[in-house]
Structure formats: structure tokens, C-alpha cells
Amino acid sequence: GESVGLHLPTLSVQEGDNSIINCAYSNSASDYFIWYKQESGKGPQFIIDIRSNMDKRQGQRVTVLLNKTVKHLSLQIAATQPGDSAVYFCAENRSGATNKLIFGTGTLLAVQP
Amino acid sequence: SAVISQKPSRDICQRGTSLTIQCQVDSQVTMMFWYRQQPGQSLTLIATANQGSEATYESGFVIDKFPISRPNLTFSTLTVSNMSPEDSSIYLCSGATGAGANYGYTFGSGTRLTVV
Fold first, then answer.
1. pLDDT tens profile A68-88
2. B103 and A106 in contact by Cβ < 8 A?
3. Could you tell me which residues come within 8 angstroms of residue B62 by beta carbon, excluding any fewer than 6 positions away?
4. Of B21, B105, B106, which to mutate for an interface test with A (greatest number of A Cβ within 10 Å)?
5. Which of B2, B42, B54, B76 has most Cβ atoms within 10 angstroms of its Cβ?
6. What is the mean pLDDT of residues B81-106?
7. Is B5 an interface residue toward A (CB < 8 Å)?
8. Cα(A93)–Cα(A31) distance, rounded to whole angstroms?
9. Contact state of A101 with B100 under an 8 Å Cβ cutoff
């Protein structure tokens, strides 16, 4: 069936380094993608989103890249901080009648001081 | 963005019983969704809660097990019926605002359910 998956289940980085979290999606009809951060005991928190008519979008310390040719999404976090330690999910929206979000597997980002 | 409150935040329940989880949004949302997140895993969509009509369930989830209500644009409930230990999970409510291709999605903090 259709799915959104991640390549790296766990990523460990040193404080101050840049982090790159990857995600693959399977449905070429998806037109909206969101990255979420989830800390322990909390719900997913919006980080950044991107629509299929774009290939890059930047926020504060974060950049999302979209490669529709290979159905790949990445989240780049600059100057990673201990507060960035969390699980990161990409989510895929197939706009239309339902507008529901389908979540990827998740990557645990561990920032070492 | 909308703020979503869920009650209870956690519960421990006996097998065979049912638990109803409430989701309250501080503003009207176009769509509401219920997700399940098993320990160490991602979020799996259970159903879309439709205002004034029956929920739309995803494959593997049925109304008899997870009845959902959505009486208005700011409130929804999910019931986990006849619980077994396999239902132990975090249940999350989500609200979406917007129209067409412009939706914003917000999540509650979840309800951590343990079935013993």
C-alpha cells in the first residue's frame, strides 16, 4: 500500500553540527508535506511545510528540500542544539476530498553536548 | 493556530471496559482526525471525524471498536471499546483549519492509555 517512510530511524549529532533527516514518500499525487517535531509526552509540533510546486523552503534554522523526481523529502537543521533532541516525522497530504495526513516512520534525533 | 485539549491525559483501564477520550478545540476547525501512536512508533490515522455524520474510518479500524462523535466544529470524542492490552497506546486528536489546498494541522498532547 501507499506509505511514507524514513531512511534513518536514529540520528546522533554533536551540538553545533548540522542535522539532515530524510524521508521517502510513495505517492506522486501528494502535494503538501509537513515536518513535525515530537518531544516525549507531547503531541507533534509543526516545524515547516512545503508544497509540491516548490523544491526548497527555509525557516528559522530549518530548511526543507523536496525532490519530486525521486519522491524524497529532507529536513535540515542548522547548528543543532540540545533542545532539538526529539522524534521528527514527515507527513504527507493528498489533497482532495479528505485532506488527511499520512505520517512517516519517524527519526529520533539525539544531540550530544 | 488552534489549541487542542484532550481529556484524560492518561488512564489505566481494565480489559473489557471502554474509555471515551474528549477533544476540545478553542476555535472552529474544518476537519478533525483521530490517530493512534503505539510506543516507539509513528502516528496511524484511525478516522476522520465528520461533523454531524458518521466518521470515515481507515483500513483496519471499525466503528464498533472506535466509535467517534463530532457534534459541532470544536468538539469530538473517540471511544475505545471492549479494550484489550493491544489497545495500549497514545491516542491523538488533530484539527485542521483552512480550505482547498491550504490547511493548517494542529495536534493535542495525546491520551496515554494502558490496558491491564
1. 999 999 999 999 999 999 999
2. no
3. none
4. B105
5. B76
6. 87
7. no
8. 6
9. no
List b or e across A21-41, with b for residues whose CB sees 16 or more CB atoms inside 10 angstroms: bbbbbeeeebbbbbbbbbeee
pLDDT in tens, B19-64: 999 999 999 988 899 999 998 889 999 999 988 889 999 999 999 9
Q: Beta strand pairing status for B43-49 and B31-37?
A: antiparallel
Q: What residues pair up with A109 in beta bridges, in sequence order?
A: A11, A86
Mean pLDDT of B74-83: 97
The whole-angstrom separation of Cα B110 and Cα B21 is 9
A2: number of CA atoms within 13 Å, CB side? 16
Q: How far is CA A94 from the centre of its chain?
A: 16
